[in-house]
Amino acid sequence: MRSVVLLLLGAHLAYAGTHSLRYFYTAVSRDIDFPEFTAVGLVDDGQFMYFDSNIMKAVPKTEWIRQNVGADYWDIQTQNLIGAHQVFKNNIQIAKERFNQSKGVHTVQQMYGCEWDDETGDANGFDEFGYDGEDFLTLDLKELRYISPVQQALITTQKWNNNKALLEGKKQYRSQICIEWLKKYLKYGKSTLEKTVSPQVSLLQKTPSSPVTCHATGFYPSGVTITWMKNGQEHHEDVDLGELLPNEDGTFQKSSTLRVTPEEWKKNKFSCVVEHQGKTVRETEDEIRTNNDDSISIGIIVGALAAVVLLIVIGAAGYVVYQKKKGFKPVSASDDGSNSSART
């Protein structure tokens, strides 16, 4: 029997430090089993609002936002996101033309928002766009200009960078309005956002000769570190670290896969170390769980990961932001959550 030690190490308090307010938009170019347009709002990586083009309505996803804002808030969110949906439909067609594409499923994505450190007072804002999973356009807030690694975005960078009013509006939202609303949301959801839930950790394997995955799930907040040890020493070779992904209940999951031969497992003692805020838990398993066990199979988890590839922005996790250009009109003193939209 192979014995693998699972360690859960404590860390600092969850609520202090850097907080974030992020909005993720995703649009797809053709009719598949997924909404044509989705929008998700996140505070500290936890989803608090949702909209898609099927329901055509912005809805709360946490009790704290439901209890602290009224119908006007959701009406404004809904109207702005309906507008964003139409702009995204137009922009995805423009992107296809620029990339000389006429067929296939294509995606445009945007992530924007702000971060604030409640200890130092430091603040930062961001606005990132992508197309088909590749970087497309990014706002350099310090230089107050958009930059892009692809020539297909040149027309947009020139257009937006020449629009000083648009750039100043984006700066005002990210450096001031977004921060103000982030602080409000933190106050609204303090009791929930302060909670700490430790992860459940399992070692999973498809077959006895397959790579071994250390899977941590059910934890909150999202900050977690997964590393491997070999005979008491840190081991970094042949390790594939997965993205942080959301669970339906607002908690998170993350995995790390170690690719070693069965002979290596027999000759050495490997351990998975999961660091999370809260407390220290030590657990030992006599053998790695496989698809033959009654426990959660690695196949299910791999399937979940595949499903999230398209939905990555709906979670709270990967945050590898890829989306097409969607601009922003000057905002009012309310956080409309849409950042508005501009044609490319």
UniProtKB/TrEMBL annotation:
Family per record: Belongs to the MHC class I family.
Pfam families: C1-set (PF07654), MHC_I (PF00129)
Transmembrane feature ranges: 298-322
GO biological process assignments: immune response
Glycoprotein is among the record's keywords: yes
Database matches in PROSITE patterns: IG_LIKE, IG_MHC
Provenance organism: Ctenopharyngodon idella
Record keywords, A-Z: Glycoprotein, Immunoglobulin domain, Membrane, Signal, Transmembrane, Transmembrane helix
Any single GO CC term annotated in Swiss-Prot or TrEMBL for this entry: external side of plasma membrane
InterPro entries recorded: Ig-like_dom, Ig-like_dom_sf, Ig-like_fold, Ig/MHC_CS, Ig_C1-set, MHC_class-I_related, MHC_I-like_Ag-recog, MHC_I-like_Ag-recog_sf
This protein's name: MHC class I antigen
Signal is among the record's keywords: yes
Residue ranges annotated for the Ig-like domain, each copy included: 199-289
Signal peptide (residue range): 1-16
